């Protein structure tokens, strides 16, 4: 969806870390050998959600 339609696929960083999902930045910060977040997805926080909700016409959450 990200590559075909240009949709931002933001993942809550707190929820992802609780479930063991990390990107390259978090893997480096935590001293882990590799990341497991699929390409196209981005770890983001509440600030990104608030900013996106101000500039879009709908938010899909699941």
Describe it for me?
By secondary structure, the protein is of the alpha+beta class. The chain has one domain: 3-Layer(aba) Sandwich (Hypothetical Protein Ychn, Chain: A). Helix content is 44%, strand content 13%. It is built from 4 helices and 2 strands; from the N terminus they run αβααβα. Strands 1-2 form a two-stranded parallel ribbon. The longest helix is centred in the last third of the chain and has 10 residues. It is globular and about 40 Å long. The two termini are 15 Å apart. The model has no long low-confidence stretch (mean pLDDT 90).
Could you list some keywords that capture this structure?
DsrEFH-like, two-stranded parallel sheet, Sulphur_relay_DsrE/F-like, sulfur carrier activity, 4 helices, tRNA 5-methylaminomethyl-2-thiouridine synthase TusD, alpha+beta, single chain, Hypothetical Protein Ychn, Chain: A, 62 residues
